[in-house]
Each structure stands twice: as structure tokens, then as C-alpha cells.
Amino acid sequence: MIRSRPATRLLPHIALAAAAALLAGCATVTPGPFQITVRDADDTVLERFQFQAGSQSSLQTALIGMCRVYPDATVTADQLNTHERLQERCNRSFASMLSPS
């Protein structure tokens, strides 16, 4: 005999999945060419380059990589076609968590 879970036990899981999907939708950017700019606390440009992002995850990988190199910087990604902007404030403790152990 197959037992099914009561619907009330599934409700929190469904709500969590829906919330995650909504948050992921808000964070998406259009793939394409990006201008990546890394600035220090004094707003001095430390590095600037173009990056062709094929997906949201490839762009996030580039931003995390810059935070590993410049743990106290602010990294900005400007989509050159749609002018979308994604800005990440690096955090030294966050960058150290990404280091291999």
C-alpha cells in the first residue's frame, strides 16, 4: 500500500520553493557582454575589463573571482547592451570562505 503525505506537511516545502523561484527571478540578468569594474574603498579603479557572460552563473563566478583577488573591493558588472547593473560589495570573510582548504 502506498502512503501519501498529508497536504499540510507539503505546504511549507511548496512555499519555500516558490519563494526561492521568485528570488532567483529577481536576480537574473541578460547574458551578453559586461564591463566589469573593480573599485577600492576610495573609489579608485583597480581593474576594468570586458567579460562575455553566457549565463547568470558565469557572471557570478567572475564576480566571486574578483572578490577573491580584491577582498575589500566593490565589483560592478554593467551589461553593455541592456545597461543592467549588478554590484557586489566584497567582504573579506566571504572571500576567505571561498578559498580552498
UniProtKB/TrEMBL annotation:
PROSITE patterns: PROKAR_LIPOPROTEIN. The keyword Signal applies. Keywords: Signal. It comes from the Bacteria. Residues 1-29 form the signal peptide. This is Lipoprotein. It comes from Ralstonia mannitolilytica.
